[in-house]
Amino acid sequence: MAKASRGEIRIRIHDRIRRKVKGTEARPRLAVYRSLHQIYAQVIDDSKGHTLAAASSADKTAGIEKGSNIGGAKEVGKLIAQRAKDKGITKVVFDRGGYLYHGRVKALADAAREGGLEF
Q1: Percent of the chain predicted with pLDDT > 70
Q2: What's the rounded Cα separation, in Å, for the pair 16 and 13?
Q3: Mean pLDDT within 17-26
Q4: Could you read off the pLDDT of 72-87 as tens digits, one per residue?
Q5: Domain extents for the chain?
Q6: Alpha-carbon torsion (6, 50, 109, 59), positive or negative
Q7: In contact, 34 and 56? CB cutoff 8 Å
Q8: What is d(CA 22, CA 118) in angstroms, rounded to the nearest whole number?
Q9: What is the DSSP letter of 115?
């Protein structure tokens, strides 16, 4: 039996999380995706299947110079909080995407909380 790769393990963990975490209109889901070079965040209403707000370190208008570090993740967290608040969203459920709540994921979450999102 072959050993599962890190990516396969993350997908399994994410599937397990998604069985419990659902975004609704009243409380959408803040989903995080972390690649080697960028970090992405979306506020999603799963009942309609719509993305309500999005931010990433790859976004040219955000002015984030480097997204593959904790500083870039903090900027994305502040940006997603601001964009969500502009749409009238203050409460979300956090979906860490199968990643450990550590490093860039934690920095994004903490910055989003400081920006005014509740979760």
Answers
A1: 99
A2: 5
A3: 93
A4: 999 999 999 999 999 9
A5: 6-114
A6: positive
A7: no
A8: 16
A9: T
Question: What's the burial of 20, exposed, middle or buried (CB within 10 Å: 0-12/13-18/19+)?
Answer: exposed
DSSP letters, 19-85, are HH----SSS-EEEEEE-SS-EEEEEEETTTTEEEEEEETT-GGGT-S--SSHHHHHHHHHHHHHHHH
Report residue 7 as tokens: 């990516």
**Strands ordered across the beta sheet of 93-95:** 50-56, 39-45, 29-34, 93-95
Give the class (CATH, top level) of 6-114: alpha beta
Strands 39-45, 29-34: pairing is antiparallel
Residue 16: band (very low, low, confident or very high) from pLDDT cuts 50, 70, 90? very high
Q: Which two tokens stand for residue 79?
A: 């940006």
